[in-house]
Amino acid sequence: MSAHNDSNPPEPVDLSNPKLSRFEVYTEGLRRDDIEIIHYEPRFAKPGTKAEKRMERIVGGLFLFSGLFATAFVVAYIWWPWEYEGAATWRDLQTWYTPVLGTTLGLSLLFFAVGVLTWAKKLLPVEELVQDRHDGGSSSDDRKIAEATVDNMVEDLGLKRRPFLVKAALLGAAPLGLAAIAPLGALIKDPGDMLTVTGWNAERHNNGEPIRFMMRDGAMVRPDMVSVGGQITVYPAIDHGATNEHPTSPVLLIHLRDTDAETLRKNLYPMYQDVEALWGNFVAYSKICTHVGCPTSLYEQQSQRLLCPCHQSQFNVVDNAAPVFGPATRHLPMLPFTVDEEGFFIAKSDFLVPPGPAFWNRPSLPEEDEK
Amino acid sequence: MKRRKGTSDSLLTKAGGELDDRFKLAGPARVLFNKVFPDHWSFLLGEIALFSFILLLLSGTFLALFFEPSMAHVTYEGAYVPLQGIEMTKAYESALDLSFEVRGGLFMRQMHHWATLLFMASILVHMLRIFFTGAFRAPRETNWMIGILLFWLGFFEGFFGYSLPDDGLSGTGLRIMEGMTVSIPFIGPWASAALFGGQFPGTSVISMLYIIHVFVFPLLILALITVHIGLVFAQKHTQWPGPGRTEHNVVGFRMFPNYVMKQVGFMLFIWGVIGAMAGLFQINPIWLFGPYEVSVVSSASQPDFYVMYLDGLIRLFPAWELRIPPYFTLPPVFWPGIVGMGLSVMLPLLYPALERRFTKDRGHHNLLQRPRDNAGRTSLGVMVVVFWIIGVISGGNDVFAEKFDISLNAMTWAGRIGLVVLPIIAYYVTYRICLGLQQHDREVLAHGLETGILMRDPNGRFYEVHQPLAEPDEHGHTELEYNGWVVPKKMNRIGALPPADKGFFKSIEEPSEDGRAERRDEIESGKH
């Protein structure tokens, strides 16, 4: 039966015997739970010794310290100046509000914890017990009875004799299950052209009028606002053009040096040559990374690279912003643009290819396969 | 004094009687009180997760009283001067208010975040313990699978949680999730539109994540934790092999009072540590990041550590895009992001079944294995750990590149090569180490302990004196069987040396008078 019982198992005791001590009744309980005591002795052989008293004092002290710090926490929580009043130095009390809360609450909990643990480790009896596991399924009787019960249930229901009912129930339950999850369909929305059309689409957002370049603060952008070698982020000058409502619209406008612009003009893809995407030495790239859509906001003038800080895709500014390193596979789309009669930058059209991360049915132009 | 004690005793008896009359508790309560638990420090790792989770429920409830999951636009006019007058969402504004204008709000926010990190970290370490000791084997496969599901629920629960404040960093995280979602073939754009209510970022995702974060997932996690612990209770804990311990018994101490007291103490200890961290160490200072704008991000944008390995894999994956013109594209992020995550869920989930299949081991196991005794599994585990660590490091490769002045591209390439090569090397090295440790155990059992005492025989040959662990035969060999537990490797393990004095500030055990201290010196200097 049990593996550890080499010696004789303890005999059951007669619980009605009035002479039984408390410990004998208790060990009878252990016996009934298949537990045997291997080792069980008080931590201190003689109760009330100096060492025991000392340990008691330590544990008691820990609890009292815990209460002290808990009180300090509550007091600090209520009366310590906490309101944020602008930049503060370490001399201002409110700087210390959160650290004081953490220290007092933390110490209070730690003192109580150490108190409880010390009680358990230094004052409770030393004990080692062994209990039977009774692992590995029920007895064969129980299994047999359970099997018969289930068979009987199946018989009562007549599952075998009434196959039509079973099939009908399944056929009825399947649509019922669908009905349960169908309301989730309220979430489904046709993505439409959300991934392909941006805020630069004049028909959609500006009644067909060309859309100007706008800075974050709403100022329109003129060529003299970007120095040679400089770059700014521009947005379509439409309603909420610079907000998250038009997440694929932000564009990086770069004023290239003469030599760099020359290199770029030489490298320009045919589709951008056809629409004359550049204006002078200016080029406008979508700021949204073609990998997973972070803004490629780090511009390194020396190497003419744009870097996306999320996954380190790098794009060559003087070669159509084609990817040169990292996980991105496509160039940053160029926004074809020019300058209107009032001297402001305007977009000639929307991006020729969709900006941002790729998706399975993303329309690709043959020219785009630059390799 | 005695009298009072008597009355309190009978009060307890009376209360117990009233309870038993109604709920019939005496039998089950006795079984519960007396249940025997085995003792080993590593059995408590999972408990850290449980205690952090309780704290997460408490601190999260506090935060939910003040946080408004709305993406409505407002102009910030709160206490934090640098952001005054800036347009932002209500969610970000209320998260800022929680940090600056709610008494103790910052403390609670930081407690919630630190508790999350501890929750995930302890799940990981607990999982390693279970894996390397073979505790997941039959009959406990179900509980292993529940544990894996708990990790992934925690993973998304945490990700959704730090996405809620709608600050610059969390918006970037959502953006990456969107990029991953649209990469799924056929349903990608539709899935993304459903998630964000149209185009990213939309105006609804925060309130959707909120209800998932504060209701759906906590409920699921709570339910699974309940089953997890219930199964540990019902199936009884595994135990290390050792004297008197078999597959059919549990050796340890009783649930009450010993185990429960240690649990309560440990729980308070964990809470104390998290509480102190919440007050002393800053975490996720959202006011520095500003509101989320699609065109703004900074370098050193890292997710929380448990998401980092996935981000690292996405960084390392080469620019391989499958294009079938004109109308099919499979973006590179699909492989590490979607397939990688899917495998990270499925492989651990199925591991117990796979191991059963390949080792044809159909038995029940209640005794743990030392990692060295199952070299194949241990090496596989180390391989995965190395793979994971490279992923985590690569998730912060821009920070490493900057701090250590390494080329960013070199970091990426080191990660790519490392991800393929290092796990294989780790497998081989671990396997050899395991075999070496096994062999050394057998050696000690056959020849005895190394005493460190060198002798020279009359022929001039040097040899080391070995202390056999049993009466040796005529060749000096002992026939001792390895029983899956620690083999003593040092002389003081078998009581040859008196233990060194204990005590931190002053010696607790005074040197005894029978000259044992001198004996120790003599043994150490090789006179015996």
What does this structure look like?
The complex is a heterodimer of chains A (371) and B (528). Chain A has 371 residues and is of the alpha+beta class. In chain A, 34% of the residues lie in helices and 14% in strands. Chain B is mostly helical. Helix content of chain B is 59%, strand content 6%. Chain B contains 16 helices and eight strands. Chain B has a two-stranded antiparallel ribbon. Chain B has a two-stranded antiparallel ribbon with strand order 2-3. In chain B, α5 (105-132) runs antiparallel to α6. The termini of chain B are far apart. The model of chain B has no long low-confidence stretch (mean pLDDT 91). Chains A and B meet through α1, α3 and β2 of A and α2, α5, α7, α8 and β4 of B.
Structural class of chain A: alpha+beta
What is the alpha-carbon Rg of chain A in Å?
Answer: 39 Å
List unreliable stretches of 5+ residues of chain A: 1-6
Q: Bin the helical content of chain A.
A: 25-40%
Order of helices and strands of chain B: HHEHEEHHHHHHEHHEEHHHHEEH
Helix fraction of chain B, binned, reads: 55-70%
Question: What's the count of strands of chain A?
Answer: 12
